[in-house]
Write a sequence for this structure.
């Protein structure tokens, strides 16, 4: 698959682990108050490859959640959200874990965090004062023979490892699940698919079972059908978004596992292909697949 990878800028983008988010009582989609772990933090036992479900937590982010500044679109944090891409290398610059390397695994909207995977022994040495550096490459990526396919948030090195096959002028993309567009919730309508994510609603267990979504894992590659992300997340008959699951389930109405967009098209060029274990952990040997 020909790309313009040789013309993409490689940029150093600073980051740091994000302090865990605290809160008072919240209300679930069933009207029940709850208090739980939320976003942010260095998590020792939640990784890509783990289930999205069963955690007594809301929007739980795997491994390390990172920010650059205090948040907002005029802050350096918005640059981190925009320029960091799934698959980018992350290096620890300071502290007891100095010199260790990790991988960007997703981008969470609203609070603008970037998910990063590191080995267990690195997490044990990491602190919230550490400085991180993302080697950003991916914004501006184009598929030269498929001009109607728009990549977002995707390191070209990860694209090359996703097992995509060119068949009769189309791209067959391995995915762990196919999500009906009607299940998409929080985030729909955003005009900036190069930052953040949007959520698969999980308030109806029967619908999840019907569409084979009860086994979703953090880091799964998924297809959202009858949707597209060319200029923002919206509905489109025949459209497809290939994305990655970046945070766990939610108790809130309109929320659930979050998806960061990676590829999108509206003309049938992108064809999802269901396979076992289409997950960034297996693709890159990280998270639960790390040896």
């Amino acid at each position: 698959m020909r790309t313009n990878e040789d013309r993409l800028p490689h940029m150093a983008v600073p980051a740091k682990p994000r302090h865990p988010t605290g809160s008072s009582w919240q209300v679930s989609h069933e009207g029940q108050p709850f208090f739980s772990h939320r976003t942010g933090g260095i998590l020792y036992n939640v990784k890509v490859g783990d289930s999205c479900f069963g955690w007594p937590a809301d929007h739980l982010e795997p491994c390390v959640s990172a920010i650059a500044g205090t948040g907002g679109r005029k802050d350096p944090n918005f640059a981190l959200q925009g320029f960091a891409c799934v698959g980018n290398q992350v290096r620890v610059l300071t502290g007891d874990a100095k010199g260790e390397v990790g991988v960007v695994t997703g981008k969470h909207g609203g609070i603008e965090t970037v998910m990063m995977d590191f080995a267990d022994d690195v997490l044990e040495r990491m602190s919230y004062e550490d400085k991180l550096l993302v080697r950003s490459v991916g914004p501006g990526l184009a598929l030269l023979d498929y001009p109607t396919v728009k990549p977002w948030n995707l390191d070209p090195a990860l694209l090359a490892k996703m097992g995509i096959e060119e068949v009769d002028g189309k791209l067959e993309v391995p995915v762990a699940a196919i999500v009906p567009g009607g299940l998409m919730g929080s985030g729909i309508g955003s005009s900036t698919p190069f930052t953040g994510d949007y959520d698969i609603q999980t308030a109806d267990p029967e619908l999840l079972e019907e569409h084979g979504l009860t086994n979703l894992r953090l880091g799964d590659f998924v297809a959202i059908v009858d949707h597209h992300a060319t200029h923002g997340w919206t509905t489109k008959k025949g459209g497809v978004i290939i994305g990655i699951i970046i945070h766990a389930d939610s108790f809130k109405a309109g929320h659930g596992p979050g998806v960061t967009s990676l590829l999108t098209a509206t003309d049938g060029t992108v064809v999802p292909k269901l396979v076992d274990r289409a997950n960034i952990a297996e693709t890159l040997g990280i998270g639960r697949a790390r040896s």
Summary: The chain is about 10% helix and 30% strand. The chain has two domains: 5-136, 150-289.
